[in-house]
Amino acid sequence: MEQFLKELSTLSGVLLAIVLGFAIGFERKLRFKEAGIRTHTIVCMGAALMMVVSKYGFSDVQADGARVAAQIVSGIGFLGAGIIMFRGQKIHGITTAAGVWATAGVGMAAGAGLHVVATGATLLLIIVQCICHIDKGPFKTKKYYRVNICFTNTTDESVRVKQIFEVDHFSQLKIERRADGCETVYRASLNTDKEYASQTLNIIMAENPFIISLERCDDN
Fold this sequence. Notes:
Layout lengths: L1 H29 L6 H20 L9 H18 L1 E3 L2 E3 L1 H18 L3 H18 L12 E8 L4 H9 L6 E6 L6 E9 L5 H10 L3 E8 L2
Antiparallel strand pairs: 1-2, 3-5, 3-6, 4-5
Helix pairs in contact: 1-2, 1-4, 1-5, 2-3, 2-4, 3-4, 4-5
């Protein structure tokens, strides 16, 4: 009976981890992130459970229980790596992966009996996430646009294109020579933080006859 009551008291840390993981995951779900409520809740609970096992499961044998806790950190690293992906010339999921890793830390604290630390860390994590998602002032996320441009290059047209769009280089460049050998066609892509309206692009084409086509693609 005494052993049952002891194990029941240690279960409080796991239950707290479920609540805290749910809270972190709920904030992530509101922002439509890759890892939401279920992922954060399970990670937090699992870390707490493994921490309880690490702390109490090897008390009657000569074993280093801390090794179990150490493996949680490296194990969550593999889970986080699966969240990170490369899409549209951008890396996505780094913040979510870091959040899952931090959530595991919250679970470990809860499982170790550091309930105040676990709760405080959860509040701080959610506050930091909310502050960093304020799209104003220094926290404003800069949006980039990709412009695909096709133009003929006989002298310094490539330099003029960079000057028009205020960029230092092209992100992609393909050079084609016409069959008659008299003209070289550049098919290039460039990234800019300036939003060009379709009317502005039409004006640029009208003022620069060497530009064959212009296309703006928004990178989300």
